[in-house]
Amino acid sequence: MKKDQNNRDSAIIIPFPGLKDRYYEKGVSSLEAHQFQEAVDLLKQAYQMDSTDPQISAAYLAALYENGDYHDSRQMAEELLKSGVGSFYDVLDIYLMILIQLNDYQQVVSTLKPLFEENEIPPEKAEHFLQLLQLSEKAARNQGVGNSANIEEETSFIHQEQSSQDQLIGLGMLKDKNIHPYLDSLIDMLSAKKVHPFIKTVILTLLQENKIDQFILVEKFDVEKTLSPIELPSVEEIPFFLTVKEQVENELRDHNPVLLEQILDMIKRHSYCLYPFEWEPVNPSVWAAAYRAMGYEIYGESWNSKKLAEFYDIGEEELSTTFAFILKLEEISSTIV
């Protein structure tokens, strides 16, 4: 008996006090910094300690989704919806996004239709869910017939009056499909000021993949340019982006690799919003200095614009202007990416 008792005692693991909260807080910080795999690893530890905590569950689900772990996040979302842990409609929102990524449009329809029939959709969610239901019904029909049967109906599939989230969903549904029925609407969106810059880049990428060879007006940040999508390099191939990225890597690789990853992720998001326009000012050192300043801001460290400008051999005014623009890009890109 004594031996059995000792075995049982040795099998009991008592976590350090506050360890769950530390995993959660660090996981959320990683999620906000777009370090999604790290966020998944940390939040998984917190979730295993307390799977009934709604905040931990929601954060872990979001991390799985953002990391592209769609099958795992789908399973978790379905468990949360059944158990009632967390806000039902917040979890449902992520669940529907996961289904879209998995091209399971029929399941979106099967999930939303009963809620509408029973009038259980909150008023603030009704318009978004209704549009998502309509888009999914069309996509599910297209999956069944293999092509678009009604061109006039399909042209309203995506347009500039939708929310950015619904536009992104619609563009995701168009991947690997014939986009010509929607081409006029997509081209109009590229010149519309109300359409998010990130959405415009997704549209340009879609037009590139479909080898659209015609000159199109594109507007971003009050700058207009007429260009042909087929002639554009990819976002990653823009020479200026590569130069800034290389300079930041050279300066931070050995000094602070964690900060380097955060800044590189930031540069990638910002370049995606700016694409396909050239960055202004054209001196990459100005941008490298401004991103270094962002690094100081991320860690709550003080910095002197005059000294930083001298170190990079640039003007203090252009550093301040570029830093302010980066703050704007960060605010814009964080709302959708």
TrEMBL record:
Identification of the protein by name: Tetratricopeptide repeat protein
Family matches, as SUPFAM superfamilies: Hypothetical protein MPN330, TPR-like
InterPro entries according to UniProt: TPR-like_helical_dom_sf
Domain of life of the native organism: Bacteria
Native organism taxonomy: Bacteria, Bacillati, Bacillota, Bacilli, Bacillales
